[in-house]
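G.,

No rush on this.
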Amino acid sequence: MPERPSWLRPHGLAWSRGTARPVYENPWIRVTEYAATAPTGRPATYGLVSYKNYAVAVLPLFEDGTTLLVGQHRFPLGDYSWEIPEGGGPLDEDPLESARRELAEETGLQAAEWREILRAQLSNSVSDERAIGYLALGLSPAEGEHHADDTEAIALARVPFGEALAAAMDGQIQDVLTVAMLLKAHHMAAKGLLEPALARAVLG
């Protein structure tokens, strides 16, 4: 990992957590209300959403520069979302194994090569959810039977990488992990961090 620039150091005091009050819990999240002290020294009430899984995201990238997107209805905003394959993995499981499973279940694919390319905090003002993103290369049909969750009605679209990136830049794709992963892959291609033929295909 490159040397950390000095400006990235923390400044000032951290939040201090006081009494915790459980508010709600299900198999995926836990909501806790804290009596807290802010970095300014002021008392505050803070609601924290704790996640019981990592978020994992997979950018499948074919040799011809196309990628595979997943379309599905999302409950929270009531909209239809095109995304790269994503899901959750237990905190005590290797995130890569979770990513392999999500790719197989949502797309029916497996990958010969995996590269971790992204770590992200998805909404760090209210939740502790962390995400890990992988580039999946050397794609082929997955072995055995794999099925999406029984609440997922999934559509698939294999599209040129440039079209997917343009849709993200135009705001037609708004899922933050998809946007971030597309931008990271484009950056890698531009900086020579992908195999030359693949980089040319990605950059169009």
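When you get to it, here's the other one too:
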Amino acid sequence: MAWENPSNEVMQEILESSKTIAVVGLSNNPDRTSYQVSKIMQESGYRIIPVNPTIDEVLGEKAYPSLLEVPDQIDIINVFRRPEYLTDIAKDAVQTNCNIFWAQQGIVNEEAFHYLKEHNFTVIMDRCIKVLHSLLVK
């Protein structure tokens, strides 16, 4: 079975009910897409938790080296990493208190998709969270 995103209604419900987004691969470089998207989501009212082993802080939030080290509740895991890293990130994700995995536009990994679905995750791939937020959340 090929991967498939949930309906717009499901994605809207996720965005409306979520408060905290752990951003895997969030850069502290303002020119990077991960920074720009996360900043806008933060300005929209979400708490951003940076997950990047190469930085200490970004957007005023402490960064964590991996998902497994985030001590707080995570509502959405948003991933800005190349597709070949998604399976390992998915394996970490299933060990967290989160069950929503969102891979940014251009990022798809079917192995990670099926692994996450086997662990009862809602999986969104190849969609920009900022764009869908602007379209679906009023």
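The first helix runs from residue 8 to 17. The mean pLDDT is 97.

Enjoy the weekend,
O.
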